[in-house]
Amino acid sequence: MPYFKSEGVAISGIAAAVPTAVINADTLTKYFDSAYIQKFIKSTGIHSCHQTGDEQTASDLGFVAAENLITTKKIDRSEIGVLIFVSTSPDYRKPSTSCVLQKRGNYPVDCACMDIIHGCAGFMYGHQTMQAMMQSSECHYGMLILGETTSKVIDKREGNAMMFGDAGAAVLYERKVGVENLTLLRTEGSRYRSLIVPSGGFRDLHPEEPFFSTSDGVKHSKYNLYMDGMDVFNFATTEVLNSIKEYLTNIGKTASDFDIFACHQANNYIIKRLAKKLEFPNEKVPICLDRYGNTSSVSIPLLLCDKYGGKTGITQKVLASGFGIGLAWGVTSFEINSDVILPIVETDDYYKDGVIS
Known about the structure:
By secondary structure, this protein is of the alpha/beta class. The protein is about 25% helix and about 30% strand.
């Protein structure tokens, strides 16, 4: 069974960062008429998002979030024994971006570094991997860094032009006696084409024909993200929904046992559909995609920072679920105090030494 149990490791800090540039829906009028834009806003709930410039990468955003955590919480870097970077927007094809982040952050040589190439379920997979690595080691802290710059593979002439925003986050893990966590992870690779950037990897590095057509006759660039919206919607409202119900049954809890449902910020309709089926009232289902769009693996920590960043003394029981590209998904739950959740910061910083000349 795809259930993973961890003990003795807890989340002790969350931070998030976004680019300063804000893209509003009205900027798309050069590509779409106002009727289409209003329909998009109504169906997705997205009014705006943040997007990076050419120089800034996903790791730049995650790095700022991690430094904010370390500085604010006064963490001794020498005690960070695991560094995991989750993203489908790495700095390079090789080496792993986590190695670059280890150098930038001056983490110890004793720090184990790895990348997880995952999208919208990335927080779920990174969360469980971090706990497993820390549980089987003696390190005191672990740093999970997440980042995504999907805007760089979006064709602004397509309907999903404002669907995806760019963001980064960092989640600090610490040893804590008595903490237990159960995470459900699943994958349906038979639907990998439902969300895909077909070219640019080593399978189709330099395609002879850089475009492909879908059944509706629309041509798409192989270097841009393609999404089968209906298939992804059906996946989220069936397989993901059923898995969350199964998870709740497994742990013997219902929606009433949780303070919030931290759902991946895919689109407004999917979130509301899941919440209704799970019997979560609206006040327990925070939303941030209206201002940040779908930020892939970053969306759950970003959501928590948007909801609780800067607030004190609020302890919350969280049910979280991330799902998407792969197709992959997961469910987990944890308790966290708002004291360790930092407000979202905006930044244009980027790693100038990372450009090889």
